């Protein structure tokens, strides 16, 4: 498999990823989608081509076992009552571990708002490990292309987002994002066609759109 499209919501995320990539690449693109499911869905309509797709950026943990700085690789993406399997997660995990990064795997839920307090606990009870705001629509658009959703954890139940230490955690997460670029390139070179896994409904209630 050749070619890699890396999607990031924020310009700061995209810049960090580009900083870690070799110069003058012709088969790797980094695009900024904007924040939230609506903007991600609009961006998804313009993501044409072949090759692997990676949705990368910061994320928030809901599971107690994740710490700031951990890298979560989604083995499934939950969005609007649907479950999008990520059968290439194990291969990416191997590459991350080989690179010395603190990688974890588990379900990722795409939401349209910040998740806090009791909602974190409820989602953790449903098996969700972390949340983001963009992977769901982009997973739909990826169709049969190899897909990875990778989130560097910035906030957790014990380290909420709106705290003075968030800035330091964000700077550390940005350095981790820069380290992901070469790993994603090796993953994209190694992946093959999508395994025959169907998209299945999720049986748990999920947060709803749209934003006001």
Structure description:
Pfam families: PNP_UDP_1 (PF01048). InterPro entries: Nucleoside_phosphorylase_d, Nucleoside_phosphorylase_sf. This is Nucleoside phosphorylase domain-containing protein. Residues 27-156 form the Nucleoside phosphorylase domain. This protein has 212 residues and is α/β, with parallel strands linked by helices. It has a single domain (4-193), classed as 3-Layer(aba) Sandwich (Rossmann fold). It has helices at residues 11-19, 37-44, 89-98, 117-125, 135-142, 166-190, and strands at 4-8, 28-32, 52-61, 71-79, 82-85, 103-110, 130-132, 147-155, 200-201. It has a five-stranded mixed barrel with strand order 3-7-6-4-8. A hairpin with a 2-residue loop joins β4 (71-79) and β5 (82-85). The model is unreliable at 193-212 (pLDDT under 50).
What overall form do the CA principal axes indicate?
globular
Helical element count? 6
User: By helix and strand content, what is the structural category?
Assistant: alpha/beta
- Report the CATH superfamily: Nucleoside phosphorylase domain
Q: Strand order of the main beta sheet, please?
A: 3-7-6-4-8
Portion in helices:
25-40%
What is the mean predicted local confidence, pLDDT? 85
> What is the count of structural domains?
1
Return residue spans where pLDDT drops below 50 for at least 5 consecutive residues: 193-212
Distance between the termini: 41 Å
Largest sheet: 5 strands, mixed, barrel
The overall strand count is: 9
Q: What is the CATH fold-level name? A: Rossmann fold
CATH architecture: 3-Layer(aba) Sandwich
- CATH level 1 class label: Alpha Beta
Radius of gyration: 16 Å
What is the element string, with H for helices and E for strands?
A: EHEHEEEHEHEHEHE
Beta-strand content: 25-35%
Organism: Nonomuraea bangladeshensis
Protein name: Nucleoside phosphorylase domain-containing protein
Domain Nucleoside phosphorylase: 27-156
Pfam families: PNP_UDP_1
